[in-house]
Amino acid sequence: MYPNAEIPVVELSINRKLSMQQHYELGKKLYNLREEEILIFCTGNVVHNLMVADISESPYKWAISFDEKVKKFVTTRDDLKLVNYKLIGEDALLSVNSAEHYIPLIYSLGATNKNETVSFFCEKIVYATISMRCILFENLS
Predict the structure, then answer these.
(1) How high is the mean pLDDT of the chain?
(2) Phi and psi at residue 118, to the nearest 5°
């Protein structure tokens, strides 16, 4: 992405003992790094359930539904709905059967300003259960 390595990069691990709210609060603390022009790059999958993945299948309805709900809540910046994703319903529970792939989204929400421009690309679900949705938060001011 940056072949001249002019952007500082720090890798963070996920502490599975933290609650989603604690991950969100940690993300808020990362916001200050962005003010220092440090790129925050979070990787994961909004929908990630390998237990029922199928290479030959089109996406499950619950995977599509949850992925679209995430897009809606990110667009409207209803962060707490995403932090408390288990309350969204069965679509969420099937989509996030283990949270390590979902938690990076929570960090990115915490590390961004709610007035930032949000855009989406690669809005695709593969193997019936893995969302490849990419989200870009930009502060255009």
Answers:
(1) 91
(2) -115, 130
Give the tens place of pLDDT for each residue, 96-132. Answer: 988 999 999 999 999 999 899 999 989 999 999 999 9
Residues facing 123 on adjacent strands: none
Task: Give bridge partners of residue 134 from the DSSP assignment.
Answer: 121
User: 45 Cβ partners below 8 Å, 6+ apart?
Assistant: 101, 102, 130, 131, 132, 133
User: How large a percentage of the chain has pLDDT more than 90?
Assistant: 69
- 52 burial level (CB within 10 Å; 0-12, 13-18, 19+): middle
**CB-based contact 23:110 (threshold 8 Å):** yes
Strand partners for 117: 138
Closest CA to 21 of 110, 89, 99: 110
